[in-house]
Amino acid sequence: MHEIALCNSLVGLIRDQQRERGFARVRRVIVEVGVLGHVDPHALDFAFEVEAKDSPAQDAVLEIREIEGRAWCMDCSELVSIAKRGDACPGCGGYGMIVEQGEELRLKELEVI
Ligand SMILES: [Zn+2]
């Protein structure tokens, strides 16, 4: 379950932020998760709870925002939306696609006290 590893680095980032900004606690954590990244939001939520224990983010609400998948189609020479990795281009049906967006997990915002 790679959600544990993701949340481990997420909590690491939050600790770095705490050192820089000097807040006491985190109330809400907003992350952007690409739909192509094989991240299960429920597993992520659970993993976050485990990893955030005894950290400034303990009891914080994890808000997950999904980012759509986008890929560059080499045949159409344009960016298209895809639902999952390996999908064909909705324009031409081809598979000459380079994924541009949708595999990342990004810390977007921290609501702190
Ligand atoms: Zn295409």
Structure description:
This protein is of the alpha+beta class and 113 residues long. The chain has a domain at 2-68 and 102-112: hypothetical protein PF0899 fold (2-Layer Sandwich). The chain is 28% helix and 35% strand. The chain has two helices and six strands. The protein has helices at 2-21, 41-52, and strands at residues 26-34, 61-67, 69-73, 78-82, 97-101, 105-112. Strand 1 (26-34), helix 2 (41-52) and strand 2 (61-67) form a beta-alpha-beta unit. Helix 1 (2-21) packs across helix 2 (41-52). The longest helix has 20 residues, at 2-21. It is elongated. The structure holds zinc ion. Zinc ion (ZN) is lined by residues 73, 75-76, 89, 91-92, 94.
Basic shape: elongated
State the CATH architecture of the domain at 2-68 and 102-112: 2-Layer Sandwich
Which ligands does the model contain, each kind named once?
zinc ion
CATH C-level label of the domain at 2-68 and 102-112:
Alpha Beta
Annotation, overall tally of beta strands: 6
Distance between the termini: 31 Å
Please estimate the helix content.
Answer: 25-40%
Mean pLDDT: 95
Number of helices: 2
In N-to-C order, the SSE pattern is HEHEEEEE
The major β-sheet equals:
3 strands, mixed
List unreliable stretches of 5+ residues. none
Q: Trace the largest sheet across and list its strands.
A: 2-1-6
Rg, rounded, reads 17 Å
Quickly give the structural class: alpha+beta
| CATH topology grouping of the domain at 2-68 and 102-112 | hypothetical protein PF0899 fold
Proportion of strand residues: 25-35%
